Amino acid sequence: MTETIVIAEIAKGTIHTTTSELVTAALAMGGSPLVIVPCSDASIADAAASIQGASKVIAAKSDVFTHYDAAGWAAALDAVAPAGTILTAATPQSKDLAARLAARRSLSVVQDVVAIDGNQLTSPVYSGKAMQTVALSGPAVVSIRANVFDAAPSTGAAEVSVVDTTGNMATAVQEFMARASQRLDVAEANIIISGGRGMGSPDNFVHLEAIADTIGAAVGASRAAVDTWEAIPHSMQVGQTGKTVNPNLYIAVGISGAIQHLAGMRSSKYIVAINKDADAPIFQHADYGIVATWEEALPVLQSTLSGMMA
Amino acid sequence: MTNIVVLVKQVPDTNAKIVVSGDRVDLSAVKKVMSPYDEFAVETALRHREAAGGEVTAMTLGGAGADKVLKDAKAIGVDHIVRIDSEAELDSNALQTALASALSQLGAEVVYCGKSAADSGAGSTGPGVAERMGWASVSNVISVAFEGGLSVVAPSEGGNAKISVNMPAVISCDKGDVKVRKPNVKGIMQAKKAQVDVKSVDIPASSVAIVAHTMPPAKPAGKSYEGGAAAAEVAQLLRDEANVI
Ligand SMILES: Cc1cc2nc3c(=O)[nH]c(=O)nc-3n(C[C@H](O)[C@H](O)[C@H](O)COP(=O)(O)OP(=O)(O)OC[C@H]3O[C@@H](n4cnc5c(N)ncnc54)[C@H](O)[C@@H]3O)c2cc1C
Ligand SMILES: Nc1ncnc2c1ncn2[C@@H]1O[C@H](COP(=O)(O)O)[C@@H](O)[C@H]1O
C-alpha cells in the first residue's frame, strides 16, 4: 500500500486545527498518514506530533514558506513528500497548492471532498446543486473541506523530524495591504453573519458588526448589498461570484436566499435565517429560521449572545 | 507584442436547475453559458493586449457545442478562437495535459483563466497548467497591472498582497473591480463569421473516473420561529444543541 500524506494547514504561523480533520480523512482513506508541516521555523511542527493517528511528522523547513508562492511551495513539498496520496485543506491557498502538487507529479487532483468511502471520494459540483462521486485508481492529490470530518484527538505522540528543502519562487510580494478592519475575512471565519438588501442601508451593518465582534465572526453580504451600496466591498460578497464559505455557523439577515447566494454558503454546518418574509427561500435551508424584521431580532440576538459570552 | 491566451469553459447557466437522472446529471435541457469568472479572464486578457500590444486567443476544450462561448469571446474582441476537440469526461491530469500541450503549440506567453469553473468549482486548472508548463501562477487575482512587468493583487492572510509575477505565467481571475465589456453590433457580426480553429491533441487516459452524480442530501427541516423575541431561544440552541458558539 502506498503512503498517505497530509500537508498541514498553516494559519498565522501555526498549525491550524483543520490539520487534525485531515488526519481523520486520511485514516478514512486507509492509511496512518505522514504529516508534513511547511515552515520556516521548524518548532511550529511540534504541535502536529500530538495528532492521534499521525504516523510521523516532518517539518519541511525552507525560507520559501515565508510567503505563499505556488511554484516554490509545490517544488519544496514535492522534494520532501514520498510517493502516495496527498491530502490538503480546501482553503483557497491550499487548493491552489494541491493543484500544483498534483500537476508536478502528473497526478489528478480532487478538490473540496466532503465524504470518503475507500477509494471513492464525493465533492459538491454545480455550486452544490449536485454531488459527484469519483473513484481513484491510483495516487492523487485531494483537498478536504473544513468542518466535515471530526478532528482527530490530540493524544498522539508521533516522532518529528526536520528536513531542509527548497524550491524556486516564481513570484515576489511587493506589498501587503492589510484589511482596514481587524475583523476576520469571510473566507477565514468559522462563523459568518451576512446582511442583504433587507438591511435597508449600509449604515445598518453596524448591528451585524456588533454581533460579529461579540462572537468572533466575520461579516458577509449578498450581491444585492454589494452592488447597491458602495460602502459594502466585494470582498464581503458570499455566493456564486463572491466567496464560497463553509463555516460552522452562517447567519443570513435580510437575505432572500437566491440560488447564487446559496451556491456560496449552502454547505455551512448550521444556517440561521432572519427574514421578515416567511416565504423567503432561505428558510428552506435554515436550521433555525426566524420570521421577523432584523430591527426586532438583532437586538435580542445581540443581548443574548453578549450574555452568553460574558 | 504579447501572445496572450484566455481559457474559457462552457458551463450550465448558474440559474439552471440541475437534475440527476439515473446516476448522472442531465444537462440536456439546460442553457449553457461562459463560466462567470472566465468573463473576467477575457476582460483582463483584452486589457493586457491594450496595454502591451499583442494578440488574444480564446481557447476551450470541449465538443462542437462549446464553439458558442468562443464566439461570445470573439464578439467582445479576442483575435483568435481555438477549440481542442474532446467530448470525453477528463480528469484534471488529462485536461491540463491537453491544455498545456495546446498552449505550447500556440506559443502562449501569458494565460488568463477563471478562478474556478461554475460546474467543477475546483480552481485546479490555472495552477495545474502553470506547473506543467514550468510557469509562475497566481490564483484568485482581483486586479492586474501590466506596466513594467506583470503585477497582480490577490488575497493573502489578513488582507491582500501586491505580487510581481515572472512571465510566462498563468493568472486565474476572480471578480475584481474591472467592469466586463459587452459586445457591440460589429463584434457580434464578426463573431458570426469567425472560424473556430479546431485542434486535436493527444490526451492521456484518466485515472479518476466519475462513479455517480447524486442530489445533495436533503436537509432535515429546520426549526422555525415567529417574531424577533425568538432570537434569544435560537442563540441558546446554537450553544446547547448545535455547539457552535
Ligand atoms: C451570474 C449571477 C451571479 C450572482 N452572484 C451572486 C453572489 O455571488 N452572491 C449573491 O448574494 N447573489 C448573487 N447573485 C444575485 C442573486 O440572484 C440575488 O439577486 C441576490 O442574492 C439577492 O440579494 P438579497 O437577498 O440581499 O436581496 P433580495 O433578494 O432583495 O432580498 C432581500 C430580503 O430581505 C428581506 N427583508 C426586507 N426587509 C427586511 C427587514 N427589515 N428585516 C428582515 N428581512 C427583511 C426580504 O424579505 C427579502 O427576502 C448573482 C446573480 C447572477 C445572475
Ligand atoms: N475544458 C476547459 N476548456 C477551457 N478552459 C477550461 C476548461 N476547464 C477549465 N478551464 C479554465 O480553468 C478555469 C478553472 O476551472 P476549474 O479548474 O475546473 O475550476 C475555468 O474558469 C476556465 O478558465
What's the gist of this structure?
Chain A is of the alpha/beta class. Chain A contains seven helices and 18 strands. In chain B, strands 9-13-8-1-6-7-14 form a seven-stranded parallel sheet, sandwiched between helices.
Describe this structure in words.
- The complex is a heterodimer of chains A (310) and B (245).
- Chain A is α/β, with parallel strands linked by helices.
- Helix content of chain A is 24%, strand content 29%.
- Chain A has seven helices and 18 strands.
- In chain A, strands 7-11-6-1-4-5-12 form a seven-stranded parallel beta sheet, sandwiched between helices.
- In chain A, helix 4 packs parallel to helix 7.
- Chain A starts with a strand and ends with a helix.
- Chain B is an alpha/beta fold and 245 residues long.
- Chain B has a single domain (3-217), classed as Rossmann fold (3-Layer(aba) Sandwich), CATH 3.40.50.620.
- Chain B is built from six helices and 16 strands.
- Chain B has helices at 36-52, 67-75, 92-106, 125-133, 185-193, 230-240; strands spanning 2-7, 10-12, 19-21, 24-26, 32-34, 54-62, 80-85, 110-114, 136-141, 143-145, 150-156, 159-165, 169-173, 197-199, 208-214, 223-226.
- Chain B has a seven-stranded parallel beta sheet with strand order 9-13-8-1-6-7-14, with helices on both faces.
- In chain B, helix 2 links the parallel strand 6 and strand 7.
- The longest helix of chain B has 17 residues, at 36-52.
- The relative contact order of chain B is 0.18.
- Classes of the chains: A alpha/beta (310), B alpha/beta (245).
- At the A-B interface, helix 2, helix 3, strand 7, strand 9 and strand 10 of A face helix 3, helix 4, strand 9, strand 11 and strand 12 of B.
- Strand 18 (288-291) of chain A pairs parallel with strand 16 (223-226) of chain B.
- Adenosine monophosphate binds next to helix 1, strand 6, strand 8 and helix 4 of chain B.
